[in-house]
Amino acid sequence: MSDCIFCKIASGEIPSNTVYENESLRVILDISPANPGHCLVLPKSHAENIFEIDENLLKEAFAVAKKIASALKLSGLADGVNILQNNGGVAGQTVNHFHIHVIPRKEGDNVTLKHEGVKLSSEEMTRVGEAVREALN
Ligand code: 5GP
Ligand code: ZN
User: Fold this and answer.
1) How far is the CA of 95 from the centre of ligand 1 (A)?
2) Which of 14, 46, 72, 119 keeps 20 to 30 A from 24, CA to CA?
3) Full-model pTM
């Protein structure tokens, strides 16, 4: 997509701090990292989000996220990682080109990804389960 910043970065048109690249994906350092080594896995072809991306490319992107997670651990930049993947503005997506965050974590860092649990009655839980199962049929 011509006006998409991540298309331009993934294709190499805009230079980036690239840590890994193959035919279909580029992995770059996030410009505003949660911790040092925060990486973004970018497919080279444009898909806005998880709803649109080709399933094989999605599998490949997650396989590369695993490779990056292992490298972050091996490098000493991470003792654990969070994999984060936002879809839609309501979910915090700010760049509308599918990407996977690989966020290195260290004991005592200041990264917060926690949520408050919402309280649901058992009836509500049953209804929610039914709604999802029905949508999957
Ligand atoms: P989102 O909120 O869409 O899941 O994440 C977008 C991420 O892309 C943010 O963490 C932001 O810091 C990063 N980002 C936005 N623009 C650029 C850029 O031009 N270069 C790099 N390396 N990262 C970017
Ligand atoms: Zn794009």
Assistant:
1) 7
2) 72
3) 0.97
